[in-house]
Design brief:
The complex is a heterodimer of chains A (336) and B (262).
Chain A (H helix, E strand, L loop, with lengths): L5 H4 L5 E4 L2 E2 L2 E2 L1 H17 L3 E7 L14 E6 L8 H15 L3 E5 L2 H13 L4 E5 L1 E4 L6 E7 L4 E6 L6 E5 L16 E4 L12 E7 L12 E5 L6 H14 L2 E4 L1 H5 L20 E5 L5 H7 L4 E6 L5 H5 L2 E4 L2 H14 L1
Helix pairs in contact in A: 3-4, 5-9
Chain B lengths: L1 E5 L2 E3 L5 E2 L6 E2 L5 E3 L1 H17 L2 E7 L5 H9 L4 E5 L9 H15 L4 E5 L10 H9 L2 E13 L2 E8 L2 E8 L2 E5 L11 H9 L4 E2 L12 H4 L3 E6 L9 E3 L3 H14 L4
Parallel strand pairs in B: 1-6, 1-8, 6-7, 7-13, 8-12, 9-12
Antiparallel strand pairs in B: 2-5, 3-4, 9-10, 10-11
Helix pairs in contact in B: 2-5, 3-4
Classes of the chains: A alpha/beta (336), B alpha/beta (262).
Amino acid sequence: MITKTETEKANFRNVWVIGEVEDGTVLPVTLELLGTARELADKRGSEVWVILLGSRIQNPNLFAYGADVCMIIDDIRLQHFIDELEAKLLSRLIEKYLPEIILCGATSRGRALIPRVAVTSYCGLTADCTQLDIDPNNGDLLQTRPAFGGNILATIRSSNHRPQIASVRPRVMKIKQPDNDRDGITIFETILPSDEINNKKVVEVFHDSQSAINLADAEIIIAGGRGTHGKAGFELLRQLAQKVGGAVGASRAAVDSGWIPYTHQVGQTGQTVQTKIYIACGISGQIQHLVGMQSCDLIIAIDKNPDTPMMQMADIAITGDMFEILPELINEINLR
Amino acid sequence: MKIVVCIKQVPASNDAKIDPETKRIIRDAVKSIMNPFDNYALEEGVRLREKLGGEVIALTMGPPSAEAVLREAIALGVDSGILLSDRAFGGSDTWATSYALAKAIERIGQVDLVICGKQAIDGDTAQVGPGIAAHLDWQQATYLMEIKPTDKNTILTKRLHENGYDICEVTLPAVVTVVKGINTPRVPTLKGRLASLKAEIPTWKPEDISAKTEQLGLNGSPTRVVKTEPPAPRTSSTIKIEGTPAQCAKELVRQLRLRSIV
């Protein structure tokens, strides 16, 4: 039978967090997920397990952030991201330990990995959730996610399948204050011969040195469009970004003009971002751009033309020339 | 090389306007278009065929009207199109969608490579590509900026991550998803347009792909949408700042301070 009966469902317990490990370091998205997992588990009266797959994993201390159990597979074969290997391991661990809920970061890696697991386990998967709650009576996960570029919030249940899997948008859930008195159990698992993938390998890894902070990790994005007039304009945005610890974003027009690489593009064919502050400089606000950034908390627009869609939708709209205003803004910040 | 490109018809957002009250997009009488990411997937498929020979087939699941995107794909250079369309497919979530597409790919047979856009702009899930790979038990590589065939059985892929990229060797058959930066799609030629008008597009039903009906459509979908609502509206008023550049900068900082941001 594909769906699960109430009796079968009762065997599934606890909330799992699939940690994200890079070069042995546990990434912040894991801590965000742990905070949410803790809330869900407390409502349901169950445990939080964090699963770490990686190589030479450094002292994670995730109990302080809400984990009760830390399950680790530390193996050189997990140094780089091999989708199929990680999916096989997780599917096997799910079968062995029967979690009720699994949370995973909606990162490039998480989004590649977790659908494979959901297909293998025949269970529901909801992408890119921004809000999660639990029905304490039956353990149903209430998964809320934006669709149609953020114009609809859909709430999704997967009542007849277990586990229930959600990928969670990074930087939406808040990291809890660590409680260093909390303790937990560590379980070590290993790769079995039947899990091995021998004909896929990562040959080289490159980290983007151009932007110290990338769009996905940023709390502030300074973005430029057609009105940025070229590479020099983006240099100005970069200066401000550096000053405030933000990242540089761009509209499609700017990317297509070759002023900045595609990895900076925000919008429908670029990235969807949800930062605390979004400063749009010389971006008119084509609908395809707006759907990629309209969920940011505070939107500031700077444009010579006060009538653009971006200036209309912004929380703060500054009419003027970005080439004059941004240096003043940098000055103003320097004074503080 | 035998390549299948999976494409999707989605609502266009071009026509939408911003609601002055809620500051959200109004979507009325929205047209349908091909998912923008699929253009890059199609172009990559056609380029690989031009380099290596073989065949490119476009595959979509949807209502009968979704045939339009297959004709568009043929105009852009693919050899043929297949439409999966039946009431039994209706209401599919990503699990059931990737199952149906995987069964269709099995039916096509001898496929070396499946290419998808990184995600569709309506659902934004990015789950169907990896889902197809899982159903087929094939290798996958996602968010690709580059595909380089190395020998008959392997490709080198450049996978985009949040903070850079890696180069991953993938063994065929495989499923890949591509991002915008991978190529610049061509515009349809006159010859392509004519071919697209003349093309016979077969419609496949569940029995054509030997699918288990209990795993199709709403029945086969583990998830249910139980509620949809518009998001909380943005603040309904825009604070307008004008003046000299210095005044503007000062006022902005003051506004940020009011919000305890600086």
